[in-house]
Amino acid sequence: MSSILIKNGRILDPAVGRDEVGDLFLKDGVIAELPGSPAGTKDETRVRGKKNSGTVSLPEDTVVLDASGCYVMPGLIDMHVHLRDPGQTWKEDVSSGSRAAAAGGFTTIVAMPNTRPTIDSPDRVDYVRNKAAHVAPVHVLQAGSVTKGLKGEELSDIRGMAAHGIPAISEDGRSVMNARLCREAMEIAAELHLPFLDHCEDAALVNGGCVNEDSFSRKEHLKGISNSVEDVIAARDILLAGETGAQLHLCHCSTKLSYQMLKRAKEQGFSVSGEVCPHHFTLTSADRIPGDTNYKMNPPLRTGEDREALLQGLADGTFEVISTDHAPHTAEEKQQPMDRAPFGIVGLETCVPLTVTQLVKKGILTPLQMAEKLSGNPARLLHLEDRGSLEAGKAADVTIINPEEEYCIDAGKFYSRGRNTPFDGMKVSGRVRVTICGGKIVYRDGRLYG
Length: 450
Ligand SMILES: NC(=O)N[C@@H](CC(=O)O)C(=O)O
Ligand SMILES: [Zn+2]
Ligand SMILES: [Zn+2]
Fold this sequence. Notes:
Pathway: Pyrimidine metabolism; UMP biosynthesis via de novo pathway; (S)-dihydroorotate from bicarbonate: step 3/3. By secondary structure, the chain is α/β, with parallel strands linked by helices.
């Protein structure tokens, strides 16, 4: 493996609050001290000085990357991805999904267990892990389901799956509607220090709704999904997490009340966190094009008031994570009427430009906060100690982004098998230039390697 020197980038390390122009050196799969800098010192002025002094001697095979004008962040981590493998590999599989991740700047992704069959046992965890080890250019972590077959009747073998390396449990796609069973799962999760990634949706309240319940749904005579569908389960599960001590992470938060409840729970010292997806911080139900199922996802696009609360929560730190909820479906599947088409949109290859365009350029997040929500915090919440930071000794997982490059999103160029996005053709700013995983360049300027 060659060494890599990243020169003149804006080094953004959320773990230590570092934001300065400098160089980064990667060697033997880890972030290393810059050659010539006295070992163990973190005197950045001296390291920077060396750069210009010409005395640095690099290993001969060093690849030098000029990152002038670019953000250099610890490799991005997506806590919420659907790889559809096993069982629905026409939509996506471990290979295509992990390649899309690399192209999107992600070096670690968490795959949700709502596959066919469900990932609810150690051997099914092993299936994804073994496949990923052979085909994935980035780290793929497989979450385990809370109940067998996502049926909500009997707990999965959570302990067994924990022994096989799941980073978290999740019933994503639905909620565990039986509160007693959910509480039992949280007790086990607390004991094993496994985060509980919570999809909040009351199965009875949702009642076949397909878009947000508002004036638009009424006008189109579509069944609506009220905010309470999400909020009642978020409230219930925050209470259960408080009682059990489980580490609760609210997935794809979309409502104003989920923001307020999360904020309050944190003030009370509960171990809770929350994520917002780019589509929810970018769009509202008013942006939906009637009949276009690429605007159909779960939870649905909400009102402007909800979106404002999400932006507020991202800015004030209540939501510490941005995740994609990458949910690929085929064009045929999506070309059904609104009430029949599947929920979900792809997100791995649009997350960085949407975050830069909607949040950083508009002053809602600083570039350092962007690195925090896309890497530092996910690493902390998933207990990935070697990631989410650019300090010496950490994994050589790095993402280089040019925040100034303007272009139009082209779904036809996605590495994902899914093309289902409402953002095709949208003008954005911010392009992933290089993704480095484990000290290897896996993506550079439009091309995948390895
Ligand atoms: N978000 C979605 O709209 N769809 C997800 C399920 C989920 O994340 O709840 C999917 O698996 O397709
Ligand atoms: Zn979900
Ligand atoms: Zn999901």
